[in-house]
Design goal:
135 residues, two-stranded antiparallel ribbon, 3 helices, 8 strands
Amino acid sequence: FLDVDYSEEFDFTLVGIASGQREHRVVWAVNTAMGWMLERSEDAEIVRKAGKSYHARFRYMQPEDRVVYTLFANRGEGGMNLPEWVQFGYLLKVENDPWIEQDALCRGLRKSQFVQAAIQLPADKVKSIHLLIIG
């Protein structure tokens, strides 16, 4: 078990995405709206006292500035990734973008055909944030 203090500032942005659609439709819609090329990568494995859960994960790195976008399914085989944000079916983690405009990002995501809501989540308030830092 890894015991790390995550109380410092986080170097990523976290967005909750509400959608009733399946993963492939959400990824297609986000790619279309944002001009990204999210691709399926290895599922995220979350280990908790109650057992393991597996969550679809999609990644895209912008070649120019190396910003990394990772879209996780919040609901997966075996449970929730971040149970405190059960209202969001998907979580978007944005890394390596110190100049990110979160409002513009969320507005762009909301333009996606199958995205009902996109809201920045306060990473410092997420109880199980270590699962996204490692993932």
